[in-house]
């Protein structure tokens, strides 16, 4: 039965209506019952579920009745995508679209390829061609719309798409992160905080939420976070690990998070170190070492800032005690620094023209430019090589 089409399995013609498919299905399962023929029963059920749904049936028919050339083209497209040769995949997709029209599958594949090649406007154009018949279609559409709009700098449209995405399916953590990122892009930090608060209160948090919860910590100082919100957040993070492996993974993520952030305050580093230390509780020595190193770095930077503050205060005090005319800014003439290492530009031009023949015009220009900017180094190198030749010759004369 597995080699038969779904139409053959149910013994119905290709043009069969939904009612005909339903009657055929119930007729078949009376013969192939779940108790006596479980495998056949499951195949019949899958055939019925596919053919009784208009969207699923359309997709199934597209594959079932595809000509050999289309099947070969699809395999080549998928192979190119697996090899991350997205430019080639796009060319093949365009060719297949011209031959057979833009199917939903080809459109989705082209969206992925255009996005991977950073052609976000083209990805958005292709997304507009999709028919949002199923939840899967809607998730794909809103997810890549949000990502593409963010990359084009349109954070407002990205937020709208991400909001729709969470309405369709609020559970996936990467959907939640996309939504939070759209708010960050617009500096809507209070909205970010409120969203994180809802997650902490209403969502079953897991190890995938670590990054967002640490982002929540770093919001302090940008927005007001109450003592109750801090306690709830701390409890949420410490309650994340459900096994020792998860605990170790979360601790590693916390350490990596600190190192990966371009902008993070010393206070936030200390807060995350405190949480990591409490979660680790001496279980993993290398985590304790990493926390110790971070604390030492924080202490050094605080010490430097403290001394810089003292020096600043002393400079301000000295400025107050200095006569106005002494402390007033004065224009200082800075003589231009002589460029000693550059060569003669005429020689560089002649050299470039001469080498354009054996190399190429580009090679000649490059050679001339290299000589112009590094003439001294080049002549030093030639002098060293000449000296080495003379020394080797003398050694050969006396000891040969």
Fold and architecture overview:
The protein is mainly alpha-helical and 400 residues long. Among the domains are: 6-64, DnaJ domain (Helix Hairpins, Orthogonal Bundle); 189-315; 345-399. The protein has 21 helices and no strands. The chain has helices at residues 6-10, 18-31, 38-52, 54-64, 68-82, 86-100, 104-116, 120-127, 135-151, 155-168, 173-185, 189-202, 210-218, 227-238, 244-260, 266-280, 285-321, 324-327, 345-356, 361-373, 375-399. Helix 6 (86-100) packs antiparallel against helix 7, helix 8 runs antiparallel to helix 9 and helix 9 (135-151) runs antiparallel to helix 10 (155-168). It is extended and about 105 Å long. Residues 319-341 have low confidence and may be disordered.
**Count of distinct strands:** 0
Which H/E pattern describes the elements?
A: HHHHHHHHHHHHHHHHHHHHH
Strand % is under 5%
Content-based structural category:
mainly alpha
Helix content: over 70%
Average pLDDT taken over every residue: 84
Give the overall form.
extended
Low-confidence stretches: 319-341
Count of discrete alpha- or pi-helical segments spanning 4 or more residues: 21
What would you report as the Rg, rounded to the nearest angstrom? 34 Å
Main sheet specs? none
How far do the termini sit from each other? 90 Å
